[in-house]
Design a protein that fits this description.
It is built from seven helices and no strands. It is mostly helical.
């Protein structure tokens, strides 16, 4: 088992929380509270909240980006892949201190963990395309 940093675990948990939000339609504050109360692994609570709340707050803009940079229609994207794209796009756009390569790699790893077989290729392609617009300076 590979060691994961609190930020890596925060990304995974943000994807899980968004997935629950998409599936259940429950209030995002209740979902956030539920995930923050989990004790099984140490996360960066601040980073988790930033990714989760930011992704929900920027839902409309993130969906426009998904439509622009994905070969799939929004309604054809599975909820788990959509959650991974939301978190990845939000981080690309708003957390500029995270290197591009890290954002892409983390999204691919989360897709391998939670997504359908081979979905990591789709996630990588969509985020890489979007990064050309969102990150003018590529590192």
């Amino acid at each position: 088992m590979k060691f994961k940093t609190p930020k890596q675990k925060s990304r995974e948990r943000a994807v899980q929380a968004l997935y629950q939000f998409f599936i259940s339609g429950d209030d995002i504050v209740d979902i956030e509270k539920q995930f923050l109360e989990q004790k099984k692994t140490k996360i960066s609570k601040t980073f988790f909240t930033l990714l989760l709340r930011g992704s929900v707050k920027e839902k409309v803009e993130l969906e426009k980006l998904i439509s622009e940079f994905s070969e799939r229609k929004l309604n054809d994207i599975a909820p788990v892949e959509k959650a991974i794209l939301y978190v990845g796009l939000f981080e690309l756009k708003n957390v500029l201190q995270t290197p591009l390569k890290v954002v892409l790699n983390e999204a691919v790893e989360i897709a391998k963990l939670f997504g359908a077989y081979g979905s990591f290729k789709y996630i990588n392609s969509a985020l890489d395309s979007a990064s050309k617009k969102l990150r003018k300076v590529r590192v």
